[in-house]
Design a protein that fits this description.
Length: 165
C-alpha cells in the first residue's frame, strides 16, 4: 500500500512539472508571435510611381516624364505597351528641361530605342543616387518638330514601381 502511494505522489509531481513546462513553453511561444516573430511579411510594400492600369494619351511630338529623387541605388520596374510606337529616356532634370524648351533630345543617360507599337515591354532600370526623369517620348526621332505623328496610348499594366530590394 505504501508503494502505491509513493507511485501516485511521484506521478502527481511529474504531471505538475510537465504542466508547468507546457505553460512556460506556451508563454514563450505566445511572446514570440506577439512580437511579430511568426507574422512578418514575406515581401516589403511596393512603392508605385505610376499606378497599375494607367492610361496616357500622348499626342505626336509630345512626352510625359516621371520624376525621381533617388537616395540610394534603386531599380524601377514595370510593364507597358503602346499603340503607335514610343521611346523611353532616362534624363537629368536639366536634360528634361532642355527637351521641353528646345523640342529635341540634347543628351540622355539611357534610351530604349524606338519600341514598336503593341509591343509588351518589361521595363527594369537601376537608377544611381540623384534626380532623374523617366521620359516617354512619342516622336519618330529625338526631335519633337514632327507633330504629324499619330497619338499613341501608353498603357502601364503593372504600374511603374520601385522594385523591393
Amino acid at each position: 500500500m505504501n508503494t502505491a502511494r509513493t507511485f501516485r505522489s511521484r506521478r502527481g509531481k511529474m504531471v505538475a512539472v510537465g504542466l508547468g513546462a507546457l505553460v512556460v513553453a506556451a508563454a514563450l511561444f505566445g511572446a514570440y508571435g506577439a512580437t511579430g516573430g511568426f507574422w512578418t511579411s514575406a515581401s516589403p510594400a511596393i512603392e508605385y510611381l505610376v499606378p497599375k492600369d494607367s492610361l496616357y494619351s500622348l499626342p505626336g511630338g509630345q512626352f510625359f516624364d516621371v520624376s525621381l529623387n533617388v537616395q540610394k541605388s534603386t531599380t524601377v520596374s514595370g510593364q507597358f505597351t503602346n499603340t503607335k510606337g514610343i521611346t523611353l529616356y532616362v534624363m537629368t532634370p536639366t536634360e528634361v528641361t532642355y527637351l521641353s524648351e528646345k523640342g529635341t533630345v540634347g543628351s540622355y543617360y539611357w534610351t530604349s530605342g524606338r519600341i514598336a507599337n503593341l509591343t509588351l515591354t518589361n521595363f527594369n532600370y537601376t537608377f544611381a543616387p540623384g534626380q532623374w526623369g523617366l521620359v516617354f517620348l512619342n516622336a519618330d526621332n529625338p526631335s519633337l518638330v514632327n507633330p504629324s505623328i499619330n497619338t499613341t496610348i501608353v498603357t502601364i499594366y503593372s504600374g511603374l514601381f520601385i522594385a523591393p530590394s
